[in-house]
Amino acid sequence: MKGTMETRQIAVIAEHRNGVLTPGTLETLSFARELESLLNLKTNIVIAGKSIEGLTYDIAGMTGMDVIGIEGENLDLYNCESYLAALEKPLEELDPAYICTPHSAMGYDLAPRLAVRLKASCITAVEKIGKKGKSVLFSRSQWNGKIILEKEPVVKRAVLTVLSGSWPEPDGRPEKTGEVTIITIAAETKNSRTIEIREAVRTGFDLAKAEVIVSAGKGLGKEENLPLIYKLSELFPKSAVGASRAACDAGWLDYGHQIGITGKTVSPKLYVACGISGSTQHIAGMKGSQMVVAINTDPAAAIFSVADYCIVEDLATFIPCVIEKYHKLFSSHKESE
Amino acid sequence: MRILVCIKQVPDSEGFITINESNGWIDFEGSYRMNRFDEFALEEALRIGEKMPVDSIDALSVGLPRAESTIRKALEMGASRGIHIITEESSDMSAFETASLIASFAREERYDLILAGVMAEDDMQSQVGPMIAEMLGYPSASSVIYEEIDPERRTLFAEREIEAGKRECLEMKLPVLLTIQSGINRPRYPALSNVLRARNQEITTIPSQSLQKPVKRERMVALRYPEALSKGIVLEGNEGEKAGSLLQILHEKSII
Ligand SMILES: Cc1cc2nc3c(=O)[nH]c(=O)nc-3n(C[C@H](O)[C@H](O)[C@H](O)COP(=O)(O)OP(=O)(O)OC[C@H]3O[C@@H](n4cnc5c(N)ncnc54)[C@H](O)[C@@H]3O)c2cc1C
Question: Cys-Cys crosslink for A302: which of A91, A145, A312, A330, Cβ 3.0 to 4.6 Å?
Answer without folding.
Answer: A145
